[in-house]
Amino acid sequence: SGVYNNEREIAASFKILNKTCENADIFNDIEVFPMGRKELMKLWSSISDKNEASIQLIDYIGINEMPGIPQAYISIVKAKEFLEKIAMDDEGNIREEVFDENVRAFLGGDNPVNKDIAKTLHSEKSKQFAVLNNGVTIIAPEIAIQSNTKVMHLTNYQIINGCQTTNTLYEHYADLNDNVELVVKFIESQDTDVAIEIVTATNNQSAVENEAFYALREKARLIQKFFDIQRNDEAKEKLFFERRENEYRNKSIQTTKIYDIKELARCFISVFKLRPHDASRYVKKVLNTSDIVFDDKDNECAYHCAAYICYKFNTLINGRKNDAPKYNRLRWHIAMLYPWVVFGKVETPDPSSKKITAYCDKVLKTLLNEEYIENFKTCQRIIDSIEMPTDDQIKRGKYTSELKEAAEKFLNK
């Protein structure tokens, strides 16, 4: 997960490896290059999560080749066949994995836009669906079309726009007939940056909040995978990072255990950026104007650790224990204080440093037993050691600085 800077020793090792492979006389063409965790995970996904599909098009037109996009097509397909060949698995269930590149999951049948889509499907206007609906956009690193049969072949495809349309069609699958047609745009691209630009552009045409686009960041994906892995540890509470809006809808998960992009950002900037005042008020501004969260260099464990601290204090607030509800307004400041109490000093490593894993492990260890209750009580005593702030002061950096000074005095006694 580090950054490769073409260090002389490593570059020399690559040359030796290249020469060794050439001398083996097994391979025709050899290229040795560095791969980080992100690249390895992408390579693994292309093998383990491979999906393929073929669909009959009613008609199509090609789009001229563009930088990063070797080929693209706009087509008309039968909506029912689109579901069967692209969006559903062999058992007739929706393929949720093909929406991973979408900034939000299905918002449900009660959503006003989805209600309108359903209304169109059940009216005479269903025959005009292809012109009344914005359609679907699919991106894949490899597409091929047979011009004589008008059959489109896709490999490792993702539906990057049209999640609401696809899921609403699926909910009304039994009512679809061959008169319901759909516009589908097929785009071939292996360039990740181009893919993100397309997703951003297509979703900017609808009502999607700016912070939702953080879901497209590679770091957000890695953080979500980290949360997924942590849930395998039976000793820990199972927390969920909802990278995409509504991702865990109808999953029977306790809502207090779900952290969306904004809530996780609040936790993170409170604990590791020492900005609980921004978490109290300006998190949207932070997300929209800076890169202090979801930075590629950050270690994912810092996000999980920050969320865990906030979750455990919330359990005390909700359980009305240890006077925790009294400090609800200051919960982000409590989160900032907690690791300092654990270590007995005011010190916060950079979330990209080598120290961060051991730091988070020690903090988490205290949260897995009753020790955390006393630690939070100490946090509350530090807050009580200075004047209780007004609602306005809580949102100011000045109070955060004063609280930091109070923590230093308290812990150095």
Number of domains: 3
Annotation, overall tally of beta strands: 10
**Straight-line N-to-C gap:** 39 Å
Count, helices: 17
Radius of gyration: 26 Å
Strand percentage: 5-15%
Spatial strand sequence of the major β-sheet: 2-3-8-4-7
Percentage of residues assigned to helices: 40-55%
Structural class: alpha+beta
Query: Quick one: overall form?
Result: globular
**pLDDT under 50 segments (min length 5)?**
none
* Biggest sheet record: 5 strands, mixed
What is the helix/strand order? Answer: HHEEEHHHEEEEHEHHEEHHHHHHHHH
Mean pLDDT: 91
Distinctive features:
413 residues; alpha+beta; 3-stranded antiparallel beta sheet; 46% helix; 12% strand; globular; AIPR family protein; AIPR_C
Mind explaining what this structure looks like?
Pfam families: AIPR (PF10592). Residues 99-388 form the Abortive phage infection protein C-terminal domain. This is AIPR family protein. The chain is an alpha+beta fold and 413 residues long. It folds into 3 domains: 8-48, no CATH class; 52-208, no CATH class; 212-411, no CATH class. It contains 17 helices and 10 strands. The strands form 3 sheets. A 5-stranded mixed β-sheet has the order 2-3-8-4-7. The protein has a 3-stranded antiparallel β-sheet with strand order 1-6-5. Helix 12 runs parallel beside helix 14 and helix 13 packs across helix 15. The radius of gyration is 26 Å and the shape is globular. The model has no long low-confidence stretch (mean pLDDT 91).
